[in-house]
Amino acid sequence: MAPTRHAVLAAASILLAQVVADCNISSNYTIIDAPDDSKTVSTCDAIDGSLSLLFNSAPSSWPSEASVDLGSVGSIEGDLVIYPSSEPKKTIATAKSLKKVDGDITISVTGTTSSVQEVQISFPALEQVQKNYVISGPYQTFTVEHAKSLTIGGLMRVSDLESTDLSLGGVSSVKEDFSINSNKNLQTLTVGDLTTAEKAFALTAHSKLTKATFASLKTIKGDGTIYQNSALTSFALPALETAGTFSFTSNGANAALYLPKLQSLGSGNSSSTSTFESVSSIQLASLTTVKGALAFQSTSIEDLTVPLLKNVNGSITVQSNPSLTTLAIPRVSTVTDIFIKKNDKLTNFTANALKTVHSISISGSLTNVEFFGLKEVTGDFEVSGASSMDCYWFQQNLKKIVKGKFNCVGNYDEKERKSSTGGIENTEGNPSDYMTDIPDDTTGTNSNGGSSNGGGGSNSDDKDEAGSGGGLSTGAKAGIGAGVAVAVLLVLALLFCLWRKKREQPSSLKLSDSPPPSLPVLPMMEKHTVISSNSSSSEDVNSQYSSHYSVNNPNGVTMASGAINNNNSGNNSSNGGNNNSRSSIYEGDQKLGVYTTIEAGEPSSPSQVGTLNFGRISLLSSASKRLSDKGMGAWKTIRRVSVSSGEDEGNASSNSGKSNKSGNASS
Fold it and tell me: Which parts of the chain span the membrane according to its record (predicted)?
């Protein structure tokens, strides 16, 4: 017997009530611990409570591939907990619609030390986790997918993985600590979307990790710690601009550290220290301010330069760097204390912008130490170098400004000394001058970094305006090249407009109907003679103008390019009505005996213009700018006019008398 309509409605009501009950469990967990448990939950838009996916509760009930799809679930008002098991070979958790979790997300294991073969997490729409996000467990292969702008309101931690590679795409901001630690097999790490760590940032205790890149990370508001990654050869933060402190210690003996855009370190506490240890190279091309102490120790760096550093409200310590030969802080003006010791090969130290310091303690085999700008030492000044190091200059110039103890061990023979830094301490400097490209195998892309010797540039032949090492970066060179290309195009455009007009005939002041038969192609400009401002006759003006823009045709005959008629008033009726609509658009500055005027009119046929070759050509910069502003179609005629005579230079050669100011040639 068929069910009645009332029976169908009653059954639907019961099912709906069950679904509603499953979707709204206040302060409790919805448990999925068997394959069929997710069917009801997957129809919910929101879960008012927490949700647990317990693959480890009854692992034998799952097939070899344990999978849960949360379907339509868009938000979870409590926590989301996922417990993979070692028994299913692959664990998959998918939530294609999930955008928000108000509590924590935890992906972990309990009660087992066995490896989990593969875990795959897919949250492609997830944008917000209000509290913590923790991933932990012996997962041989682990992959996770997020939306492009995932914000985590608490901490994020990834630990104890057994996978060799890890990519945390989509995570953009973490409000509490961000840490990746103790993943014993991890070899490469990429976190491409993280921009902000509001508190601490840590990468610690990885014995096999060789490369790590955080391509978008700009801000670490707490302490940045890279510690005990014994195989690390390359660590890149190519976008980092500021950090509370930064500690790079106990990592690979020859690690390269890339911090090319780091501008400031420290939280204001003079006792907080940023330490760089066990590195073969470090790029600090942009660092200007350190609010705390700065230390370089036990490195294999040969040349250490921090080119733009200006203010340090703590100490600078450089010690136990056996390969270091040169140390330079050329723009530092204030620092609390300087400690330099146990650097066996260090011979040269310069700090010529330094004006005030509390104490200086330097020892070693130094032969050259420079403080040519020093004005005040409120504590002790102690410098002990090689027997050839000049102490006479220090005694004559610095002893009187030292309020504490003065001691210098070296040579006291009288001699004249000058700064070796060429005045670079008085310049601002440009970070791009000290940047080189970060290798592709480090970041996956070519991005600007600093030089391998602290931003000083790897090519000793490249110098800045004050003589300091460090050539133009690839980006800077490309920018210059683009600018030159634009200038060339503007020059060609102006020459094209000039040549496409018919040549003027002296009798009628009209452009000729065809180009000169002896000059079918405009050849290379060869001369660049300045036109004298003392030109007094039309013949002199034309002669000098010919010298300024002389050209050689293929037959070896030198000809002067003709100037175009300079009529700005109603004197163009004799031109057959071709120029009645002409109006002055640009009147150039009166310089070097002539000035340029640019007018709107009808262009001549492009077929009358030959191939353009150009050499060295000078144009007024304002005319070039207006050409780019107005567009090519608006510029029809270019004329050059003598300042002293007021003549059109193109007509001057055919007239013995001077033309009037309106541009009419005398008869």
Answer: 478-499
Better-predicted residue by pLDDT, 459 or 418: 418
Q: Provide the pairing of β-strand 558-560 with 550-552.
A: antiparallel
Say how far apart CA 433 and CA 422 lie, in whole Å.
16
Beta pairing class for 105-107 and 80-83: parallel
519 pLDDT more than 80: no
Q: Is position 553 within any domain?
A: yes
Q: Are strands 510-511 and 326-328 parallel, antiparallel or unpaired?
A: unpaired
pLDDT > 60? residue 71: yes
What's the pLDDT at 37? 87
Rounded alpha-carbon distances, angstroms, from residue 70 to 24, 36, 61, 146, 599? 15, 12, 19, 15, 71
Roughly how many angstroms between the first and final C-alpha of the chain, as a whole number?
120
Neighbours of 271 (CB within 10 A): 8
Identify the domain boundary among 147, 166, 184.
Answer: 147
- CA–CA distance, 286 with 413 (Å, rounded to integer): 40
- Residues making up the chain, counted from first to last: 667
Using the structure block, give the residue that is written with the tokens 């330069």: 305
DSSP 538-562: HHHHHHHHHHHTEEE-TTS-EEEPP
The pLDDT of 81-99, averaged and rounded, is 94
Q: What is the pLDDT of residues 203-250, one digit of tens each?
A: 999 999 999 989 999 999 999 999 999 999 999 999 999 999 999 999
The yes-or-no verdict on residue 174 having pLDDT over 70 is yes
Q: Quick one: which of 75, 67, 117, 76 has its CA closest to 94? A: 67
- CA separation for the pair 289, 311 (Å, rounded): 5
**CA–CA distance from 511 to each of 69, 483, 636 (Å)?**
80, 34, 13
In a domain, 6, yes or no: no
Identify the three-state secondary structure at position 625.
helix
Amino acid at 207: S
105-109, 123-127, 314-318, 476-480: the lowest-pLDDT one: 476-480
Domain count, the chain: 2
Q: How many CB atoms lie within 10 A of CB 512?
A: 15
Two structure tokens written together for 134: 């923790």
Domain membership flag for residue 2: no
Within 10 angstroms of residue 490's Cβ, the number of other Cβ atoms is 17
Domain that holds residue 128: 19-147
CA distance 23 to 45: 8
Residue with tokens 């107005």: 630
- Alpha-carbon distance of 344 to 339, in angstroms, equals 15
> CB of 174 within 8 A of CB of 150?
no
Q: Which amino acid is at 514?
A: S
- The structure's pTM equals 0.65
Per the DSSP assignment, residues forming a β-bridge with 383 are 362, 408
- Answer for the pair 468, 421: CB distance below 8 angstroms, yes or no: yes
Contact criterion met (CB below 8 Å) for 504 and 565: yes
pLDDT band at residue 501 using 50, 70 and 90 as cut-offs: low
The pair phi, psi for residue 228, each rounded to 5°, is: 55, 50
Give the pair of three-digit tokens for residue 650: 């193109």
pLDDT at 159 over 60: yes
Please list, in sequence order, all residues whose beta carbon lies within 8 angstroms of the beta carbon of residue 199, skipping any fewer than 6 positions away. 155, 175, 176, 177, 178, 221, 222
pLDDT band at 36 (very low <50, low <70, confident <90, very high): confident
pLDDT over 70, % of the chain: 61
Q: Report whether pLDDT(116) > 90.
A: yes
pLDDT band at 486 (very low <50, low <70, confident <90, very high): low
Cross-strand pairs, 135: 107, 158
Does 108 fall in a domain? yes
- Closest listed residue to residue 362, CA positions, set 372, 351, 376, 378: 351
Q: Last residue of some domain: 96, 128, 147?
A: 147
